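Task: complex structure prediction.
Instruction: return structure tokens for all chains below.
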Amino acid sequence: MRPLLVFLHEPPHIPFVKLHTLGFVVSILLTLASVGLLATRGLNFGIDFRGGIVMEVKAPGGKADLEAMRGQLNGLGLGEVSLQTFGQPDDVLIRLPRQPGDDAAQNKGVETARNSLGPTYEYRRTEVVGPKVGGELIHAGTIATMLAILAIAAYVWFRFEWQFGLGAVISTFHDVITTLGLFSLLQLEFNLTTLAAILTIAGYSINDTVVIYDRVRETMRKFKQMPLGGVIDLSLNETLSRTVLTSSVTAVAVLALLLFGGEVIRGFSAAMLWGIVIGTYSSLFIAAPLLLHAKPRRGGEKPAPAGTAPTKA
Amino acid sequence: MLNFQPWKTWTVILICLAGVFLALPNVLPATVVAQLPSWMPAPRISYGLDLQGGSHLLLEVDLKSVTKERLNGALDGLRTALLKDKIGYTQLAVEGDHIAVTLRDAGDADKAKGLVRDVDPDLEASQTPDGKFSIAYSAQSIAQRRTSAVDQSIEIIRRRIDETGTKEPTIQREGEDRILLQLPGIDNPEHVKELLGRTAKMTFQLVDEGISPEEAKAGHLPPGDEILPGDDAAARQGQPTEYVIKKRVMVDGGTLTSASATFQDNRPVIQFKFDSSGARRFADTTRDNVHKRFAIVLDNKVISAPVINEPITGGQGIISGSFTVQSANDLALLLRAGALPAPLTILEERTVGPDLGADSIRAGTTACLVAVGLVGVFMIVFYGLFGIYANIALFFNLCLLLAALSTLGATLTLPGIAGIALTLGMAVDANVLVNERIREEARHGRGVISAIDAGFSRAYATIIDANVTHLIAGSLLFELGSGPVKGFAVTLCLGILTSLFTTMLVSRLLVVWWLRRTRPKAIPI
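Output:
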């Protein structure tokens, strides 16, 4: 059985190296914009990080009367109550700010709201995060992301050369920062699952970069006299079919999550989808052309004998 | 690359079959699983609280209060010892993390130091330049006490939760002073929170009959006494009461062996029984203090202070406070389970109702099935026969992942399901890499066998590098993440491992079989 479609019969001749200055400019602009957004608008931290109360309730009678609920809850003195329907018309997400006082005060807030709405509502989910835990989670999350990127860079350095490691770190930071920028721009809720998504994006982006670097290294060894720009162009074009197909197929899987996975992981799926796009872009236009400037060592390596793997893992 | 020794073939086949076999119980309905013969392992993936519904509580043990309470205890002991040995002092008080003492006569210093050691060998006394004594617990002993306080809290929490009949609670230590409590199936944890919110430290202490609370409050509080609020019948009716209580604990609630709620004169009361040492002390105290009031103090509140009419020597008694049936039952439960060594605070609470959990499972499963379907179609469209092989490998990949999750006892969360869907996408990457490489090698003029062989072997180095980096990210997530994120990391890491196995061995085996069977002249991709 033969394939119905072939994405690219022959490798194309896209002048990636020529385009890379444009790519750099776009990326620098994107990064600066993201940093600016993060500095001015900041992130819309969910309760995981900010502390506070979220309750998901199902209203009786198939449809929620938000106005009535708002009136009822606002009269309780719990601070600014935000209500939002969530999926179905009778699914309501109630957000309460962090209650002044200690952790016990947070629990009291939930009880007050619960008692006020009464038992006809179905309480689908209640989350209370104290201010103490929130701060720690931000801290742990930042450390996890940094460590992950550094550990991956160390591995790439170990398996390739430091120039590759550097390129991988820069492009991964680029992906992470622009993802954060997107979250800031759209004010999407940033919570623990989003953090997991960002780490996964880092992993995915590196994965993509490594595949391309692997080919660059192989081409470098095969054509010792070819200028570095030519090596990079050839490698990117030869692996382009794979890059596009893999990204599309992963994107398809993530799209299924986004459409059918339910509200709870919607933010996660959205982050992942963006991550796949930006990760693929940065491998092609940032990570690979960066080698042009970092200039990895070319001599001294043995050419790979035909028919065997260039390096045995 | 295309040589498959028989033993290798069989190992791959056996592992795949084992995967299917172990994954099967997760797919079969529970009734079928129950009928399986007992020798067959039937592990099922356990669902996280976000999928099955339940409560997740993160508690913090107030360790500061442990040290503080211990210092207060030492202070009482020290005061008694100093009085007994007639060592004069001008000041004696707990200041922060130590006890400060100023002796009237500096010559008593050595004697006082000896006393400190007698009171508690863990205490260390040091003299400050201004002639004061600073007495504190050694760092080592504090650390030890903190650890044991957390361990003890876990034990007490377990007992309290067990008494409520909650099924399969998970109680585990998190960090230095935290306890994570997971209660599957509990969608309103108010009662549990109420039970955990009380230390339930009960003591029997004498009421100081010589002075009224008003006089004591006016500044005449005798040393060794304290004023405690009442939680008795009058207080419940809105008339706050107060008692002057002698600090000395006559009998400790820790000596109770049983407590149960019952009725007396149609009112709920608590019946209790002491162990032998408690019974002896209770008998001694009641004998020596007939016609005086004996206060039952719970968490620094007096729940009742009956007059001792006659010595009670049987080692059992009744507490009649102002209880409802529920509160009597709760108190009896708390007394049976024992007192917490320190108060607990709830740092984080996440509760998911059973319906939302069921919805999440449905949504997650749908998403996974759609993802599998789309990926499968995609592979066949772009790679034809080799796409079918990749899909077969993908199927075994899913089975192995499910099998690994269920045999390792991992918990599946909603982000975990996302991890599975994502793994599917990644698993395909390896197949794409191999197939693209084969295509490329063929384009460069290699023959069928040679191109396939080179395709596999060249792609492998890349696959390994790409997956190792991913695995690094995954394991860091696992190490540093918490709750649902951890669940995601588990499926991601296991998924990477199983997909490495299935692409590197299963799809290759399928291609090798096809090569041997058909001896093709051209590559179908």
